[in-house]
Task: structure prediction
Amino acid sequence: MTAGGALDALLIEPVPGIGQRFLPDGSTAKYLLGLAAKPEATARQLRQYLAELGDIVAGESRVEPDPRDRRFADQAWRTNPLLRRILQAHLVTRETSMALIDLAELDWRDETRVRFLIGNLLDALAPSNVPLVNPVSARVALDYGGLSLVQGALNFVDDMKSAPRLPTMVDAEGFALGTTLAATPGAVVYRSEVFELLQYHPVTEKVHATPLLIVPPTINKYYITDLAPERSMVEYLVAAGQQPFVMSWRNPDAEHADWGLGTYVRAVFEAMDAVERITGADQVLLGGACSGGMLASCAAALLAHRGELDRLAGFSLMVTVLDNARAGEPAAFANRPVAEAAKAMSRRVGYLDGRYLAEGFAWLRPNDLIWSFWVNNYLCGGKPPKFDVLYWNSDVTRMPARLHADFIDVGMHNALARPGGLTIDGEPVDVSAIDTDSYVLAAISDHITPWQNCYRSVGLLGGDSRFVLSRSGHIAALVNPPGNPKSKYQVNPENPTDTEEWLAGAETYGGSWWPDWLAWLAERAGPMVPAPRGLGGGGLAPLAAAPGTYVHAR
Result:
């Protein structure tokens, strides 16, 4: 049995909760024993620490924060003698703490747990999080006669009233589905109890004959693929003459508790049938993102098992992990008793509440997703920003209890990495049988689906794979429109087994990876044909305007 992967391990967070991660445990004891076993080296490290603190007090320390660390961007951290010393003490404390963890020589799981515990405690105790010590907080309090601190306290109380009990990350005012988000013109052309299928109006005279079906994540809503205009993947594909269809999952409730992995994989087949019926195509390009990529992989593997893989013209995986071994920090906390308790909890209520998942995701990047908003909302009494990605991130969904349990089991047993390790409706799943050409995307700063695990899909899948590494995080990798001067991606035409070898030989390109994917799709999307005059076809008529009805359910 293996530890669960990052996504699957996050699914067990609600039991007994994220707080368990911050309590000393067996890994902490091993850490202390490791240091005790090396008394001379430990003492030497602590003497160096005390000497550095002495230099700080004397004003002789050269320690500086990372220029990319936005917490300490204000010049007062450097120009004010007291603040500079406070910051330097914090920095050397963190540096020494990490050095002591290295010194203890723990195994991967224990080291990851201890590093998470100590790292997050130090991040929480950072001077930037302290009212009035933070120079921005002090200036705002002075400007508003202390009212900012009063407003911050009110914001704090409001946020703590309900789960996930984190600082509010986005000002939701002004966002509207179908207008400012999920606004690409289209229609629902098929609806089942589980999903709606969206088709989009062509804007070119001709389109590629082979349609593209995108399977979105099951944890949040589909419109990560159709965010704001000019930032929408779907809009970009339509403008390039592709025929994208996107599944929009229903937000399940307790009555849907028995919807499991088989239910969702069958839904993918149902969507494929509808796409082929509408377009008259014999093949589709199939793609999936995050947990949707797991569903798409299961569907493709079953097609191979049935001898029907010729229905796929190409296969795309975006920020999806199939091999869960050592998949980041959450995997280090996964264990069977907690997993069983998590499954029992969701079974009692019929679903896993997405708000608990949001908390787990946030603690993977606390400085960006917790403490920055702590400063803005509470220390400065401000409103959170208006940002489309953060709005989507806060628009959480539920997960049926059966699917929750199935995902946990897949991760805990690393079932997709083993031929036949998973069966669906009695049929074995073997992703190595997917010998269709594949396009595999990962993100170098992804804390949910680590890029090293995503890269292993290249070795699991059959056929030729193109692996692309976006120089961004999990969500930013998907929302990556051309035109951003900061965007970069890496490609290595060779696919060596070792990830570091791949990275060392990769070439970096400026800009978005979307054009690269578009070129890959175009080679497999068939000839250009006249664009359809209307939406639907083959007896399937439009049922509602996009973004449909399921996306609005809370």
Remarks:
- The mean pLDDT is 92.
